[in-house]
Design brief:
single chain; about 200 residues; Jelly Rolls; 1 helix
Length: about 200
């Protein structure tokens, strides 16, 4: 099937025809029905914070994020509802790096039950990683089960993160704002493809 055929193919589960993603710079609210998608790309770069401006219901979403931070350290953080909730995000991770001297990969770090103040994605566990980075985020916005699974990679490194928002009462109503963990960094490149799966 070529790209043109795929564009008009029906989804076998829902019989919903493929639709083009909405394109947004994040300045206006977007609501996604199941299988709808949006591309969020700020019009001005570099930028410190990117408010995704996506209203969410309880459901499953996925995001593919292409970003590059300047000067380095590819560590995007998602604050749900555009708010800071303190250190109530428990995460487990495994990060892998590449040693150019020995031409081999090695585990940079791994940990369980650390806490952060948002959905945190450190691609090379504190090592100066070089962008651009690409990451795949699987997001559950159910009030009783708010969590994110992230698989990501950048120049000579990759990571897997599983993060749980340790709160079963707060409603997740806006996907949130993404910002670099390093407070002096900015996004030199940012493009997010977000789809509501359920």
């Amino acid at each position: 099937m070529n790209n043109l055929d795929a564009r008009f193919a029906l989804n076998s589960v829902t019989d919903k025809a493929y639709t083009e993603p909405i394109v947004s710079d994040g300045s206006s609210p977007v609501y996604l029905k199941p299988l709808d998608s949006v591309i969020v790309q700020p019009t001005t770069l570099p930028i410190r914070n990117v408010a995704l401006n996506i209203d969410v219901d309880e459901g499953i979403y996925r995001m593919i994020l292409l970003s590059s931070e300047t000067p380095a350290n590819q560590c995007p953080v998602l604050n749900p509802n555009n708010l800071s909730y303190g250190y109530v995000f428990y995460y487990t991770y495994v990060d892998e790096g590449y040693n150019s001297t020995t031409s081999s990969y090695y585990i940079i770090g791994s940990a369980a039950n650390n806490t952060k103040s948002g959905f945190f994605n450190d691609i090379q566990a504190g090592v100066t990683d070089i962008g651009p980075a690409i990451s795949y985020w699987l997001i559950s916005t159910y009030t009783s089960n708010k969590q994110v699974f992230i698989q990501s990679g950048s120049n000579m490194g990759e990571a897997i993160h599983s993060i749980i928002w340790n709160d079963t009462t707060t409603k997740w109503f806006s996907l949130g704002t993404i910002f670099p963990f390093v407070t002096t960094n900015e996004f030199a490149q940012f493009k997010a493809y977000i789809e509501r799966l359920r």
